[in-house]
Amino acid sequence: MRPVNLIPPDLRRGDSAPLRTGPLVYIVLGALALVLVGVTMLVLTTNKISDRKAEVAQLHREDAAAKAKAERLAAYTQFQAMSEQRLATVQSLADSRFDWERVLRELALVLPKNVWLNNLGASASAGESAGESGGGGLTGSVQGPSLELSGCTTSQDAVAVFVTALKDIDGVTRVGLESSTTADSGGAPAADGGGSGCAAGGTSTEFSLVVAFDAAPAPIAAETTAEPSAAPEAGAEGESESESSEGG
After folding, report:
1. Which of 59, 79, 142, 177 is deepest in the core (most CB within 10 A)?
2. What is the per-residue DSSP string for 6-62?
3. Cα–Cα dist 166/120, whole Å
4. Region 169-175: what's the mean pLDDT?
5. Beta strand extents in the chain (DSSP E only)
6. Per residue in 80-97, is it b (16+ CB within 10 Å) or e — as a string?
7. d(Cα 15, Cα 143) in Å, to the nearest integer?
8. Alpha carbon distance 61, 53 (integer Å)
């Protein structure tokens, strides 16, 4: 005979007791947990995106404010740059000036009594000609201003003394002797510079030398002012020619 359990299923205990609710509840709870995690992550991500957008908007506003301030201050920056440029230009011009007045004054002080100058030329920078002084060969090797002197004295020793005296002028780096010749001319040197520059009679020594100021900066003011001055003269000549042609 087969045993029969007469206890109702909802009151049974042990392994034979059936599930009261079934597996559906656990499935629903798992789904709800997943939904909750997803919603939480979505909310956190949305909040983070909103914060980043707010930061980007704030940075854009700050950038716009900085650009506006920079535009307002641009005029001051340009003025400062222009002021510094002009100051540098003035400083450069001042540094490049050469004090010819001082040099000539010191030359007059060191010039011996037995030396007569027939020609004196000055060049502001290398490559410039000093005129009729005759020291072009040595002047080409001078990197700065230079003096070219030619004249007469009584002997070769007097020329050497004069060269030594020229070295006492402030700023002189070297003195080059281009030529020094002695000839019987029969008299004292003439002050008017007639003929060869030395009077007839006695023994006379003619010399030509160059005084170099290599360490001095080459003046640039003459270069900047010489070029513009040529244009008006050309224009004036053109106008005068046109007026003369019209009048003719």
Report:
1. 142
2. -S-GGG--STTPPPSS-THHHHHHHHHHHHHHHHHHHHHHHHHHHHHHHHHHHHHHH
3. 14
4. 89
5. 115-123, 146-153, 174-186, 202-212
6. eeeeeeeeeeeeeeeebe
7. 117
8. 12
Residues 54-58: what's their mean pLDDT? 92
R_g of the chain, CA atoms, integer Å: 51
| Average pLDDT over every residue of 7-27 | 66
| Most trustworthy range by pLDDT among 28-37, 133-142, 237-246 | 28-37
How far is residue 218's CA from residue 145's CA, in Å, rounded to a whole number?
A: 6
Q: Where are the beta strands (DSSP E) in 44-123?
A: 115-123
pLDDT at 223 over 60: no
Residue 16 has a pLDDT of: 55
13 CB burial (10 A radius; 0-12, 13-18, 19+): exposed
What amino acid occupies position 232?
Answer: P
- Predicted TM-score (pTM) of the model is 0.47
